[in-house]
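Minutes, project check-in
Item: structure for the 164-residue chain
Input as provided by the requester:
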Amino acid sequence: MEWVFDPFTSAYALDGDFSVFDSDETAHKEAVRLMSNLLNTHYFTYLYVDGEPLKFRLPQVYALTKRGRRMVLTFTLPLSRAIDVSTQELDVQVYDNTYFIDISWKDPSTIALSPDVSDKCKITLETPSPSQEILDYANSLGIDEQGDDDLGAHFSQKVSIHCE
């Protein structure tokens, strides 16, 4: 995954200290800190195989870089078990279930699969369409209130991957 943060979020996450990018060592230390913080949130990433959730193992490959005033976090989430993409449907959603953060793909072309499966698989990007009941519920929450654990899923894009 590659997450490109907006300038405000980048400055907030780094406490305004962009000097972490002055050396590979300090950038790596910051990447370790960020990945450690994301562990409890399941990296905001939810993978479903044939409708059933699949967990990830701890990421070993990750890096923190910058593009201008934007922080870029790149990481690979290893699956907890092997799957057969030719027989199983995959769905991926990325969201924070405790707070609204705009996490989105611009279009399906920004989603890349590994070369060994890319020509066998079709990617579909679904835009969320929450019901009026969900919208009303979300709007009824106070600024310090947290919704149900799956509230963010109603507002998240879904990437479906079907391979043959």
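Outcome recorded: The longest helix spans residues 24-39.
No further action items on this chain.
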